[in-house]
Give the backbone structure.
Amino acid sequence: MASTHAKDDDFRDLLLTFAAGDTIVRAGQTDVQMYLVDSGRVELVKGAGPAERIVSTREAGDFFGELSALEEGAPHLTTARAATAVRVLPLDAAALGFIVRERPELALRILHRLALRLRTLDEETLRAHEIAAGPLAAERKPLPAADQVVAQATRRGGTALPDAALVHRDTGQRFRLTLDRRLLIGRFDPVTQSAPDIDLEIVDPQRTLSRRHASIWRDGASIYVREEPGVANGTALDDQSLAAEQPMRIRPGQTLRLGLVELELDLSPSKSTP
């Protein structure tokens, strides 16, 4: 998405440039705009001075401040600060209307990003409820991990794959796939202290993976993989490159290449754990 903006005559003249450390927008400000990140990295900050904390980051292809544009002047909830030199594209309601009419593919990408954030929020809320209900949950005898996957798949009408794993080609390291939900593949983010569902940092010493590189999920008896937006070093299945946000079916034995990390989908039973 970022490169599309930079090369598109509709938007090129609207890009704003900020140096590292510059404030792009302050918490509480009402400028009725959202911002798409064309290049660089932006930190979203809450608080000030000793109480300041970085709550999230946005990299090329992502956006922030959407509530101010969509809610017609709602104040920004966080301060956006350039962590590196950045270029951003400001979009007000009129510009968003133009994108919806003239560039619907960009509007769909924005909606997709919003959906991912809502999914993440829902999952975090669910985990918080599960932690809060810990004493009650402890009274119930849990199913074995594999049986949980079978039960969840049965409820959803799908085919359970409790032994699915991604296997690192060079080391044989197995990364278990509990495919009852969409899983994010990437590496640990030291800024936000967040980790993807499948953290491949241990097999990526050259740091070629993006923090949010790809996602993998089950649909019936098939497994699909998709590159996330803003990936720097690409994704391929065997010799075919994946286009961002375009799902592709992955079969056992195929090579999934994320940056320089090569993995193979394995559905055979195994007692080893990641």
